[in-house]
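in:
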């Protein structure tokens, strides 16, 4: 299993750079200077936090031509800061997870088509975790925690509908699963080896705040409530 890493800021595409140039140097007079600034990680981070970048991302027409990584990082980072979650690495990790989950959606012009997610049954995942070996258990634990964050963050209306009309588990059920499995993953030595322990532990402690921030992102893309898991 390949772990999700916080790579949104380091993975800007040519289309992303062109977008940032159009927003921050609309007359093109300082386009080269801007690229020099973006090449510096600290300056890049400051530029991505600018209100005009956030506003321009919000106003992107469909299909969105910037990368899912840039799109989700700007939105997640903005909402996380408003929620008191100041850590950029945490925002980057969550944005990377969201980008991986939604990159094939019709909202992004990626040429990858439109993929629906498979049905999510947490009880099956937990059974596999219990019977797995030491290392595999870690990866499966992370996977379940991440699924819980995606489904509660991006697909809350779908969860609420299933809980109300089909007797499926409710939002709090998946929040508890996400918190517990991020906590378990954060204490594993492999999380430290992959430099993800801090992100996992932060989400274990503040899963609900992160989920609410992602609900805001989902509202920005209204199609998500209709394009979720079965």
């Amino acid at each position: 299993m390949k772990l999700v890493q916080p790579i949104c800021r380091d993975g800007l595409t040519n289309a992303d750079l062109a977008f940032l140039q159009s927003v921050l140097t609309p007359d093109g007079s300082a386009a080269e200077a801007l690229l020099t600034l973006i090449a510096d990680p600290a300056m890049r981070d400051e530029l991505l936090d600018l209100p005009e970048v956030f506003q321009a991302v919000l106003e992107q027409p469909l299909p969105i031509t910037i990368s899912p990584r840039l799109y989700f990082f700007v939105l997640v980072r903005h909402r996380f800061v408003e929620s008191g979650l100041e850590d950029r690495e945490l925002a980057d990790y969550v944005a990377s997870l969201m980008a991986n989950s939604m990159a094939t959606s019709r909202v992004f012009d990626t040429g990858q088509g439109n993929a629906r997610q498979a049905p999510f049954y947490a009880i099956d995942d937990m059974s596999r975790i219990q019977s797995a070996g030491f290392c595999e258990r870690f990866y499966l634990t992370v996977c379940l925690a991440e699924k819980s964050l995606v489904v509660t963050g991006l697909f809350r209306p779908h969860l609420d509908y299933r809980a109300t009309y089909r007797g499926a588990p409710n939002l709090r059920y998946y929040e508890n699963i996400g918190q517990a499995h991020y906590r378990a993953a954060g204490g594993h030595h492999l999380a430290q080896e992959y430099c993800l322990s801090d992100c996992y532990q932060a989400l274990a402690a503040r899963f609900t705040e992160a989920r609410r921030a992602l609900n805001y992102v989902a509202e920005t893309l209204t199609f998500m409530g209709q394009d979720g898991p079965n």
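note: Confidence is low (pLDDT under 50) at residues 105-118, 222-230.
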